[in-house]
Amino acid sequence: MVTIRDWSVWNEDCGFIRGTSGEREVSLSTGKGIVKALKNKGHSVIGIDFQPDQIKEILKLDVDLVFIGLHGKYGEDGKIQGLLDMLEIPYVGSGVLASALAMDKAKSKQVFKLNGIKTANSKTYDIAKSFDKTTIAKDIRSQFSLPFVIKPNQEGSTLGLTIVKQEEQIEQALETAAKSDQVILVEEYVKGREVTVPVIGLPGEERALPVIEIIPKNEYYDFDSKYQPGGSQHIVPAELQESLTEQLMTEAVLAHQLLGCSIYSRVDFIINERNEPVILEVNTLPGMTPTSLFPDSAQVIGWSYDELIEKFVELSAKKKKQAL
């Protein structure tokens, strides 16, 4: 019998903890789905709505395994993973370094580029000490041609993202991004088809699941397109040339491995107008509601949602045994 603890996200305004509340509802939805699936598989499950000011609750944990369902900061950036590592409590998914690297878009893009995975041209602006919008905007104008994207370097669910089509939008886009992070990422806008590739498996044994094409109802795959009913259409498997499908699956597994991800992830791409995959990011804790992208892909190969969640637990148990 495995006792699973599910983590949801803190939704309280405090200091520089920004962006966390933006993904609370997504975390809660993921958590509810995971808890139900685990119970259906016979596990003893206790859900925890994690709050950093109640850390004593975590220090007293006596469980066999933690299933992290916390999107955004504190969950995807390696902080919870580091705490669990110190407590010697095993958990499902990637560790501290992989989580932190995947969350840091600029750093992960550097890793991908060095290893031959195509990325969009970009530049970061650190506003920790000062935030001179006029100077940054001037530099952006000299470095990028319209349209381009301004977004927080570390944030999920496209929160704080602006597609800048007119120069007059730049300063407001900078302000929007700055609400979520002290580092702002500016990158060229890549027009094309949005696809994503789930990856699952023990380190060195990963496999890609069927590629999904995402057709958002809005201009791009924004927060509403991701989480509102009818916000987007998922085509699984994506209708692509076999060679392109193979390239996407190969690069998804490679990206997962390069960052050191473990058990599962989901890798997002844009297929540009030249039919080339351009990697966007690796999600170490992708949405895991019964209607999320990863479960949609798993269903195509015959895995139900409950079976998918159970596979994550089984893989985590094998990983634990291998480490002993």
How would the global form be characterised?
A: globular
Task: Could you tell me the CATH topology label of the largest domain.
Answer: D-amino Acid Aminotransferase, Chain A, domain 1
Relevant CATH superfamily of the largest domain: ATP-grasp fold, B domain
Distinct helical segment count: 11
CA gyration radius, whole angstroms: 19 Å
Beta percentage is 15-25%
CATH class of the largest domain: Alpha Beta
- The share of residues in helices is 25-40%
What would the keywords be for this entry?
324 residues; alpha+beta; Rossmann fold; D-amino Acid Aminotransferase, Chain A, domain 1; Dna Ligase, domain 1; six-stranded antiparallel sheet; four-stranded antiparallel sheet; 13 strands; globular; disordered N terminus
How would you characterize the overall build of this protein?
The chain is globular, with a radius of gyration of 19 Å. A hairpin with a 5-residue loop joins strand 8 and strand 9. It has 324 residues and is α+β, with helices and mostly antiparallel strands. The longest helix has 19 residues. The N terminus is likely disordered. The chain folds into 3 domains: 91 residues, 3-Layer(aba) Sandwich (Rossmann fold); 149 residues, ATP-grasp fold, B domain (D-amino Acid Aminotransferase, Chain A, domain 1, 2-Layer Sandwich), CATH 3.30.470; 67 residues, ATP-grasp fold, A domain (Dna Ligase, domain 1). The chain is 36% helix and 23% strand. The strands form 3 sheets. Strands 8, 9, 10, 11, 12 and 13 form a 6-stranded antiparallel β-sheet that branches.
